[in-house]
């Protein structure tokens, strides 16, 4: 049965939308944030400039949408890591390890600090950061209730510590070194027995 | 005895140089990086534009110099923290605590992520980061030799972990919470006894 016309239109719109995001990320990586124009994006995507402007008002809006999509994917990975593990200790380890790998990937694929500065002014990015913080804090709260991590520091502060510590993964070269970073971070969470 | 003319000139130059740095940092904090001009800086410093251009070619160069000065001060604080402590454990604690306080202060006084992106392209800033890393790594190497921290991870990786973990101080509200962060970070360095 052929798709309804409306569905075909909708699927086409989604494809164009995605092509614009991917092309823009590509161009920014190649040429730097300031030198990419709407005309270049339209040309490489293979659509007219007028069409491009029906989707997005400017380059900045495209980058924010591209970043939103990545962040949503990352948050989903973390939620998946948490839901597939069997007990609080395994869940905490899974969440922290997943975040370390995301931090590593982002520092290597993110098109530069200039873009990062632009995006981090956006309030949706602040919202995503908050979701990330909450997700890690919840895993920590659960682990604290189970008695497997220290209870002398609030889960909120512990989450702040974990998220900063794990961004070190961006400066580490290998899966092994990232594994060791997760170990160090978890060691910091252990109850103080002295 | 009156100062020699050359010394008077030199002292005057240093004063003007410092006034330019301070005024520029002030203006950038008030108005944002992109809206500050050389003309505004000259006016608020109370010097002519032609004089300003004898000191610096552009706003970016002033900010780099201002940042250099802060970083040099911070590195000096860390070196002092290290040299006044009596033993490897106290020295390591002093260095990490000093860095946590610097990270806290920087996140509250630093005029925004846009400036941060600009500065972090500068290779002198990369050099200062390397000096910071080396200073922390040396304190860790000494502590590892004394057997008070884990030896299953290299001091280089441990320094990367510490420096990232302690930047969490920028998101923490109080001296007490920063103290707890230093405790967590140090706990991550403890030998693994399981």
TrEMBL record, chains A, B:
DNA-binding region residue numbers: 37-56
HTH tetR-type domain ranges (all copies): 14-74
Top-level division of the source organism's lineage: Bacteria
InterPro entries hit by this protein: HTH-type_TetR-like_transc_reg, HTH_TetR, TetR_SbtR-like_C
Pfam family, one: TetR_C_43
PANTHER family: HTH-TYPE TRANSCRIPTIONAL REGULATOR BETI, HTH-TYPE TRANSCRIPTIONAL REGULATOR RUTR
Protein name: TetR/AcrR family transcriptional regulator
Organism: Nonomuraea guangzhouensis
